[in-house]
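Hey team,

Sharing the PilW family protein run so nobody has to redo it. Sequence (356 residues) first:
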Amino acid sequence: MTRSLRPLPALRTARGFSLVELLVAAAIGLILLAGLSTLFVNNTRTQAEIEKTHRQVENGRYAIDLLAVDLRNAGYFAEFNPTLLATPAVLPAPCSTALADLHAGLALAVQGVDDGDAGLDCLDDLRAGTDVLVVRRTAACIAGQAGCDAASGPGPFFQASLCNDATELNSPKVTDFYALSLDTAGLTRRARNCSVPAALRRYKTHLYFVANNNTAKDGIPTLKRAELVADGAGAAWRIVPLAEGIENLQLEYGLDLAPAGGDGVAELTAADPAKADGCAAPACAAGNWRGAVAVRLHVLARNAAATAGWVDKKTYTLGRKADGSSNDIAAAGDPYKRHVFQALVALPNPAGRRIP
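Structure output:
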């Protein structure tokens, strides 16, 4: 009697998947992998855009805050009251390092150049069509004190007199009330007791401008500041990058032009005070700038990196032009996202001194 042979259980369980089953499994795996890859790429791209936006907002706000802080200190000269100075016959050249022009600039806490580059040879790579802001003041701290610059070496330095005698505060000449020098030589003004030297402060002139590049030919517009520094040969300008992606800076000034000295409140807003209120003569231009008591800041910030698939078709309004028309910046049509930042900054030092 013969028996039929049956496959052993171990052999039956050892059989693999069929070719069809493997192909189906591979197809499902590829579909899942494609979905996960797409999700990962989209999330990465979204995160990159969020980071770009954060950097843009951070740079725009930082630029506004930096300008606002300096403007609030504009016209600060310690114990010296610059309203005693005569208004200069002509506007001081912003880039001039001559000591005579530095003295003339003391009467003008702020000054600006509206959409131009004439006489701005000290500003390298200035972006066309943007404004330039000049802020003049002294340091809030006394040179040589902890946390402040040293009271030696190159300046410029400013010294306000507190000595009430015939050679200083009782002198008929306002120029005896203070001293301004590129170094410590000639700073002979005295303290209240008239026996020891008065405190020294660093004299600061800052020129804010927008450059086409942060570093050479990188194509990233950047807010920069030219700082007046002195060396053994005289004075020079040091350029300091401040905020990347700042593409445009436009300014409007609140002017107190009341003939009796004003009350510190602006009754006129102008993009170019030198031409405001029918002004044409150089002396009138200087007088208008002296009446600046507030500044409205308009900053256009741009992403430093392009966004794939994006085309900027927006028009941005940055205040008004000198002729009163809207200052519209046409759509760039490029792959960079932009945002406008604005602020109105009062100038407490020049405005407060105009209050009767």
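Helices lie at 9-13, 19-72, 99-105, 282-290, 348-353.

Ping me if you want the raw files.
A.
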